[in-house]
């Protein structure tokens, strides 16, 4: 890990760093910024308490505080977690599609997807993560809520489970056991006990 900051102290006996000011930590392709942090060199663990921003190509995550486990390439964030997945500037990549469907289908690009939650555990090498508590995912005119959500980087999808509700402006509402939202497209899949209320506009 590379660390840049305004101030830093180091205890040779305990191998503990205290870092504050404009803290910037870089590991692999992620960049972490915060106002205050501590780093345990023995355990390879960093603790951030001054507000956290984690940037990875195509993704920006913010939270009140967080912990980085370098050996596991994992970060655990808590408090006002907000993850923004933006694919609008990417080129040359085809949208993800659900397994078992025809590759000839075309879907409109979704652009930006925003996930908020109480807590988030994220493995940055695999680009997989799990969000818990008051989960909300917003994509264009769609909003999905649930107790938990999992992000799978390989397929670039968010899977919401437990108390799932999907709404679409202006009045469409759908409840089910599981919703899969594709980051690169406007495609949504609902599974298990699907029931909904949809507005039908009558022709004049």
Describe this structure in words.
The chain is mostly beta strands. The protein has one domain. The protein contains no helices and 16 strands. It has strands at residues 2-4, 7-11, 16-27, 30-40, 45-48, 52-56, 59-63, 65-69, 74-86, 112-123, 128-139, 142-152, 157-168, 172-182, 188-191, 195-197. Strands 4-5-8-9-7-6 form a six-stranded antiparallel β-barrel. A hairpin with a 4-residue loop joins strand 12 and strand 13 (157-168). It is elongated, with a radius of gyration of 20 Å. Mean pLDDT is 88; it is low at 91-107.
Fold blueprint:
Layout (H helix, E strand, L loop, with lengths): L1 E3 L2 E5 L4 E12 L2 E11 L4 E4 L3 E5 L2 E5 L1 E5 L4 E13 L25 E12 L4 E12 L2 E11 L4 E12 L3 E11 L5 E4 L3 E3 L7
Antiparallel strand pairs: 1-3, 2-3, 3-4, 4-5, 4-6, 5-8, 6-7, 7-9, 8-9, 9-10, 10-11, 11-12, 12-13, 13-14, 14-15, 14-16
